[in-house]
Amino acid sequence: MATSKTGVLLVNLGTPDSPSVKAVRSYLREFLMDEHIIDIPYYKRWILVNLIIVPLRASKSTGLYAKLWETNGSPLLSHSQAINKKLQKALGKDFLVTLGMRYGKPGISNAFKELIAHKVNRIIILPLFPQYAPATTGSVQKAVDDLVKKEKDAPAVDFIEYYFDHRLYIEALAAQGRDDLNQGRYDHVLFSFHGIPERQILKNAPGSQCNLSSSCCSTFHKGNEFCYRAQCYATSRLLAESLHLTDEDYTVTFQSRLGKGSWLKPYTGEIARKLPDEGKKNVLVFSPSFTVDCLETTIELGEEYRDLFFASGGEKWTVVKSLNDGKQFINTLSQIVQAR
Question: What interhelical angle do 327-338 and 75-91 show, nearest 10?
Answer without folding.
Answer: 60
